[in-house]
Amino acid sequence: MEVLYLTGLGLPRHEVVRIVGITEGTVRNYVHAYEAGGLGPLRRFNPHPTSAALDAHLDTLREEFRANPPHTVQEAMERIEALTGIRRSPTAVRMWLKKTGFPIAKPGPSRPKPTRSRKNYSWILTSPWR
Is the same domain home to 23 and 58? Predict the structure, then answer.
């Protein structure tokens, strides 16, 4: 509401950003949501959906992940979407897994890179065609 009030007063967007303490993109999204349908859509506007929807499936996911823990966040994302139909970003899934106490298997140490050996060019020094 503050964003709309300050914008309605005619303040430039960068001033609204400074006063309210949100990003310029969020100010733009709020104004567009209001222009699209008034206060109704703005009240329902949620630029950052939470992972609370995953909490409704906590028992199912806990059972699944305890039986077969995911090795990567990408694998967890895919399995969560397959089980619940809810798609979240890798960051949201990682944070949800951490919040609920599910460990993600970390890959083991990578193999060392082979070192380049110096080629033996001593034959050039002993070559008769030198």
Answer: no
